[in-house]
Amino acid sequence: MTDRRPTVAGRVALLIRAGLIAGLVIAGLSYPLTALAGMGVKAGTDALENLPEQLTEVPSAQTTYVYAKDGKTLLTTFYEEYRRQVALKGMSPYITQAIVASEDTRFYEHHGVDAKGVARAFVANQQAGGVSQGASTLTMQYVRMALRDSASTPKEALEATEQTASRKLREMRLAIEVEQRLSKQQILQRYLNAAYFGHRAYGIYAASEVFFSKAPKNLTLNEAALLAGLVKAPSAYDPATKDQAAAQTRRNYVIDQMLKMGSITAAQAASAKKAKIKLKLSTPPNDCVSVNSEHNDWGFFCDYFKNWWREQPAFGKNTLDREENLRRGGYRVVTSIDPKIQASAMKHVLAKEKRNSPFAHGQVVVQPGSGRIVSMAVNRRYSLQQDDNGRHSDSAQSDDVRGNYPNTVNPLLGGGDMAGYQAGSTFKIFTMLAALEAGMPLSTSYYSPPRFVSKYITAPGPATCGDNWCPKNSSPSMTGNQTMWSGFGKSVNTYFVQLEQRVGAEKAVAMAEKLGLKWRTEVDKNLATPDHASGWGAFTLGVSDATPVEIANAFATVAAEGRYCEPLPVMAIRDPDGKDVSYQGKLVAAPRCKRVISENVARAATDAASCVTGYGAQRGSCGGWGTSEMVYATIGRPIAGKSGTTDNNKTAWFSGFTPQLAASAFVADPDNPEHYVGTGRSTISKYTVAETLRDALKGQPKLKFTPPSDKLVY
After folding, report:
1. Where are the transmembrane segments (predicted)?
2. Given the DSSP bridges, would you call strands 332-335 and 64-67 parallel, antiparallel or unpaired?
């Protein structure tokens, strides 16, 4: 049997014969009747055949929400259009009733194009001599929104909204198609999620948040009527202006329409119209500079997360695509930052160095075995507003350039394009690991004089003599026979240069690379090449730049007994459908770990590093003292680590780790590396790490380190 139902084009052709499309054109536009009516029935029908048969619906841009580790504390949002999809069941029934009453009272009666509405508008506009009424149904309006949102070029965007007869024809044809494919409830839901309400709020979820700071399911009658009234002209009826008269008039009109439709009672209407407009405006945060002022310090972590996102191929082919995806993709991101640990870290950082100091004091805390970053704290405010910043610490620039304190958006802790800071004797960990990996035991002994004439030719470093590089110790008490335990615990330079000569400087450089360090300055890049690394004697004393994230994660690798995990700022990433995002079969938010050194090598290094903190080695003698004994005294649990100062105290570091957490803190002047921190600041990083880890691990088991086997002891 032949299907005699009219096609989409057939339905519109019937309207042409009835003379109603011409009326529609005039109803919605200031177009002459002949613009379409003069085409004739056949020409008009032929024109319809060239129009698209089905609406192409591209998912609207949605807001990405970024939370702290608890999954509840909002860090910030990313969006181009503030929007979030919500189902009808998540909306107050008042808003669905109000939008129908406001925009299309015959919504449930027509099939996409309202013939009666067209006729009514045609007559009204003819009498008015212009456009006084429109005839676009809710479905036609939705089509227009969908065409706008799916536009990939400026030309397509213009065609979606331009005031032409052809646009109206296309809207009608597609509206009828949509009505054949979707239910009224589906159309209404899509409409309410796409409509623009002003103040960059797209969709009812955003509008409810922006104007009333509540979810759409909690909207009252007068609130719903107010929002529904905005769709026609968001600027003209904006209730956030001083004069709310226009907004109130429009709201009351919507309420009257709801009463006419029988959606509400006369008593409800009267009460709602008497109510004053009460807004609770909110401006949703956008990007890292909009992190809540109470948690402004989280901005540096947010910036690290954003840079990390840009590097993930799961979110696009290049950095621009990935950033656009972040702003439009509607993801729910649970990051790794722990609010409690971050608060403790900030407290201890600011107790040592105030924000108005030119010296940056910062700390990064990483979880061994996952690489997840649980804290990034620094004595700065993450802000673009730098008019009141202090003077630059370089006197040659101080008259023309302000310093980056207390406000900055520079990635002081890592993740951006900053090279970092010289990490000093912290780098001895790489030499020791390389030696242990080569089979040299912890008991390897060298006589360590006050100054040592190395085999290395003069290179960037703290001391030279003639053509050779000749480092010296910081204290005469370091002179004598040292092992890895005592040499590392006391940070004996002349011991470690001999150890580096034995194993090869290139092996120490390679070890640092295995543990995640990258070379960002031209000097470091050149010296780290295979042609030059073997002669980079000063490497073991930390003349290279590194970021706090890199150093903290390197020590976390040792704490994880040799398993390196990429630094990771996230716990989970879900798409708008609630599915975990994956790439090439792996979850994007999952730890990315691999073994880079053996368990026994890591355990041996930990045993020597326990001499530094005062906790003490399990398999050997620390030689009577360590450089950072206050660390164990403060934390009161097994802890290993390494202090690091550069020549003349340009910077001062401490990196410490337990089996559960690793942290690295520093103090330096990011604006001027030649501005020395001085001896008075040489211990603050040690206390910051110890106090932060103490607070973070309170109530957790005091886990002990596993001692190394005899193979790397004797």
Report:
1. 12-33
2. parallel
